Amino acid sequence: MPLFNVYPLYDVTPVKAKGVYVYDENDTEYLDLYGGHAVISIGHAHPKYIEAITNQVNNLGFYSNAIQNPLQVKLADKIEELSGCKDYELFLCNSGAEANENALKLASFQTNKSRVISFKNGFHGRTSAAVAATDNATIIAPINAQQKVTILDLNDIESAKIEIEKGDVCAVIVEFIQGVGGLDEATANFFEQVDILCKTNNTLFIADEVQSGYGRSGKFFAFQHYEVTPDIISIAKGMGNGFPIGGILIHPNIEAKFGMLGTTFGGNHLACAAGLSVLNVIEDEELIDNVNTISKHFVKIAKTIPQIKNIKGRGLMLGLEFDFEVSDLRKKLIYDYHVFTGGAKNKYVLRILPPLNVKKEHINLFFEALVNALEELIKIQKR
């Protein structure tokens, strides 16, 4: 049976990985500065991660949410401790799209309204309301387009005010650093004014931290760079270091009711063990401090490369913007220099999302490869 052909694939077949490196079937070593879309947060095959999930699956890998699961409580307490999001409550699911679906559903339940506001170049998932709130018409099927969504320009506070004050908006959902869109950010004033508008108009403010959370921005959550208090925070990618897990943090002003949300696999024992091990490593190895140290080193070098026109993002959620489309550059980095990087909706941006325990020497290797690749591309263009 052939696979349903929806992914354009690079001709690389990883078979193992360790730390910030991936190895293919020929034992070729690749420097991983993309982490599978920011999923690999503590490095591939971290020994504490392997130990945690091995021990858990040897005892109990899964049972339903109809029974007690103390690991969920431990995970919730650890998220609260490291994030500083006191008194929020946790609902666990399996992915970022599912987290945002539950966030939007909960907002609609809470406000008894149905319209959503999102922003241009935003990405919130590929399912139902989440994809309707995503600014990409090519992945929105007619069944998704039935959702009531208004997509505004980022930083357009006047339009946001007009739309929110119409009184029918259940939620405003925003990435504080856009991922797929290309690492754009709004101003502090915009975020903070939208937060105020939501709170005065019975509208929930949803922080989509699926990609920017778990220390990647240099704080535990990207919204913590601003004076805002989200009603719901969606999380996923870095949570399980590759094991599927997602969730939403829910402000105590929102009351739970039996049956309001539900999931079969969400918060299972193995997922919680993976999630707890990630948080323990982030804490024990002081990885958020490392994010800030490495980010400064990265930016310092990037500023010396004339072909880089703009450095975008924060922490280890970074973008290098050029005055040409980067698809050929990415291919050269993969095939000739064995470095994984990412692309974006903005075709001029090279996306950098390494594991949070990446070191300066890895960044140095990347920039050496980048400079050489750029020089080779220039020579090819001159022929």
From TrEMBL:
One of its GO terms (molecular function) is identical protein binding. Signal peptide: none annotated. The keyword Transferase applies. InterPro entries: Aminotrans_3, Aminotrans_3_PPA_site, Class-III_PLP-dep_AT, PyrdxlP-dep_Trfase, PyrdxlP-dep_Trfase_major, PyrdxlP-dep_Trfase_small. Keywords: Aminotransferase, Pyridoxal phosphate, Transferase. Pfam families: Aminotran_3. Its cofactor is pyridoxal 5'-phosphate. Coiled coil: none annotated. Belongs to the class-III pyridoxal-phosphate-dependent aminotransferase family. This is Aspartate aminotransferase family protein.
